[in-house]
Amino acid sequence: MAISLRNRQKRVPVETGWLRRVGVRALSVLARPRAECSVLVVDDAAMAALNRTYRRVAGPTDVLAFPMTEGRFGKAWPDLLGDVVISAETARRQARVRKADLRAELALLLVHGILHLVGYDHGTAEERRRMWHKQRTILAACGIQASAAVRAIRAPAGGRPRAARPAPGRRRGE
What we know:
Blueprint: E1 2-7, H1 16-29, E2 36-42, H2 44-55, E3 63-67, E4 80-87, H3 88-97, H4 102-117, H5 125-141, H6 146-149
Parallel strand pairs: 1-2, 2-4
Antiparallel strand pairs: 3-4
Helix pairs in contact: 1-4, 1-5, 3-4, 4-5
């Protein structure tokens, strides 16, 4: 299991070693022993740019997932899962609103993103129930109390998932 984690922002302190270990534990719980993914922690400005480019939504979001297992070459490297991008500033705001721990919020967002990479979604009530259950299971395996991290990560308006897909007419990576 390999998690490449880069913190590209300086406004919010992020314990990258600890967060990487959460990702490794998540892959272990998901029985993906050879899986790899990259995690990028950014500020709101960078996240807003990604959100606009890939989802055509203005403003930042908390987490985006870019699955590599989809599309024409998705089966070529099944253990190369893709990328998760987390906005540290949005995570901090959300944690403050809920009076929650920032570490728990960042862990939740990472686990949520990884679940999107391996095919989980929350477009329907049943998918949401299944994904939320798996989130709680993984967070518990990481020693994070569900009450400290569980929140309603809601699907954006229209029920569209946060897993980013290229904008219409664009290919991944353009």
